[in-house]
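Example 3.
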Amino acid sequence: MPRKTKEAIEEKNEKEKLISKKKVTKSTTKTAAKTKKEAPTTKTAKAKKEAPTTKAVKTKKEASATKATKSKQSTAKKSTAKKVTKTTVASKKVSTKSTKVAPPTNVEYYDLPYKYNQTIVKVLYQNPTTLFVYWEISDADIENYRKTYGDNFFETTKPVLVVYNDTMHYHFEIDINDFANSWYFNINDSKCDYRVELVRRPISYNEKITSDYIHITSSNEIESPNDKILFSTDEPYIVYFRNTKTNNQRKVDLRKLLEELNLTNKKFGFPLIKSIYDLYKTIYHVDDIDKFSMDLNNPSSGNPSSHSLSSRFI
Amino acid sequence: MQQKKGYVSFVLHAHLPFIHHPESDDYLEESWLYEAISETYIPLLINFQKLVDEGVNFRITMSMTPPLLSMLDNKLLQKKYINYLTKLIELSEKELKRTAGDARLNELSKYYYDRYSNDLHLFRDVFKCNLIEQFKHFQDIGVLEIITCGATHGYFPILYVNEKTVKAQIAVGVQTYERYFGRKPRGIWLPECGYVPEADKYLKEFGIDYIITESHGILYANPTPIYGTFAPIVSPEGVIAFGRDMESSRQVWSSINGYPGDFNYREFYRDIGYDADYDYIKPYIAHNGVRVHTGIKYYRITGKTEFKDYYNVQWAKDSAEKQAGHFLDSRTAQINSLAPYINNPPIILCPYDAELYGHWWYEGPYWLYILFKKIYYDDCNFELITPSEYIDKYPDMQVCSPCRSSWGANGYSEVWLNFTNDYAHKHLHVAGNRMVELANAFPNAEGNQKEALNQCARELLLAQSSDWLFIITNGTMVDYAKKRIKDHIGRFTKLYEQIKSNNIDLKFLKNIQEKDCIFPDIDYRIYK
């Protein structure tokens, strides 16, 4: 049975008050993320960098956008303020004579900001075949794009993630939308370097956009994890051993090493080992080494008793 | 006597997130620490001492994480633990009367009364509330190797987007270790066994020799390690990695036929906090009236049935002894079949959550005690060893890059990055970048500004704890975990803005310094 603290219950109530603000973002992100898309791998993306101009022309639309942002912020603030007042009243019992509400002491309430006003895109790996991307465009940059490409810039273009595999030198695109701020997508190749560019692609005529893409920002680079034993594809004949005390490193010919092993074990009638593949079959007692390679999930993973506290302490 | 052909190395990972609420007694989450002390840490200490007293030469390794050390060292939490035990003893006394009509039950009531009374005596009168010193003692006499962990158990494979934040997790983990154990740690339990090669240079910088990885951290390494998980490998940067053995893991961990599921063992879920009459038990459950575990459990697992028989302490011990024998025989056979193929004597690495032993698997500490005795006295072909000792004996190892991996479900980052918790990462990354910005902008802060900067570092580290993300994924206590992320990011951001505008609210600073009082010696400049 889940245990809840008073604070947690209070927070839940407060969260419900703020739900109108949060629901929009959360639900869209989830929906977007749920619709994982198999990325095409052939289409080329021309991601030209367009320098935003600095000329300041304030249009009606910008003004209304700014207003909307401001009103959003004030809603959030209002909710917070309400909470503070409520808590103060609750803890005020002793000071009912006073007409003034004492300033709250040690009352804390925080919510996570919707935006940090930065233009970024970050990529993380969830597993060897799924990447996660989150992004944000700062208000200043939004304004600049509108100044440069017209008020309808965001209506005449759509956001696209261009995913680059820098190890195998290909890239592909993922269509995203303006309601999302994060996305999961599949990749075909594990153990490769990936990076992502956030770009906008014209979807209707905009006389100021002359290129196929407007580059918004580039991500960090990550390597997707490996997901298999590498001996089938990448078995070197020379390996290195290091003495970790002296740091002396030496080359070892794998074939020679296995030959010596076979010579030693021959007299005991042990099977012949021709490769690491054979060796693994022997030391892990498995016939199907490929199946073994793909199924290394230890039972602690996902076992209710496997991990830190919440499963153990509930 | 059989010739010793190999080694077994037990590594217990002792960790709880930093939960400290001086502002209220209502936080049930604080009881995680008290339960772990009574069910895991004290039983382990008792069994270590028994082994030493009986002249058993054993070896075990434990990671004790900085948040756990900080909580064990916290005077308020020590006091609260004594209160917790006092109430439990009071409840046990009542139970003695309540169960007087049932001899078997009454015997168990007496068992709990004695056990909790003994805990109180040990903790308060013998250990003087200082459990860290007790563990340190076993390290000092050479039977226990204690290793460190990331400062707040931050998950490196997601944090490393800003490498400085990973560096700080390692640096503070090492500093905290030195503070309590008076020497540098040789090993580290990477939080959630989350390995990224980008952390290697920082591990080396702070003097770490070795890490513990999940099996595929070794098996998927590049190039493929010749001897699999049965020998450590060294990364090109010089970090030695030991991989988890799968066969022994399955024997203990398997939810289907793992040892903890023996029918004679104590049933975790049948607690009088849920079973007893509500009015009777009310003073001993949550302040808000929600039923919770009390620690008094009268039933054994019995079988896959709703009907549960009373727990029998002797039967449970018998099962533990039988299983210890099984484990010993299995490792003996495993090492016999491995030894001809491995250049050095093979090492079977058995890493577990420490809290599995005692809290979840009540008989776990006794099982360890029996196993260690058997290994010492029985005719077996292996010895216990710590990873450090193994490295010192067999320093020659293959150079391979371990695979990016974790010990979470499916082996990578899904537990800490999924639809339920992905929203948090943006905030953690931004706060990390801001902390680096502050450290570079104020390299020589003094006085209140320095205090505020150090507190920023604490708030960031606390927000980064992988536990919050795990709890959200797991779906229990989610509100608490979300609140902790919000609180620490909120406090960090507020201080960040105050520092930048040179307008530090000292009252606010003092307030959060009291609440989030982890790492008193932290120096924010680690983020430079």
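Residues 88 and 106 of chain A are 10 Å apart (CA to CA). Chain A touches chain B through 93 residues (CB under 8 Å).
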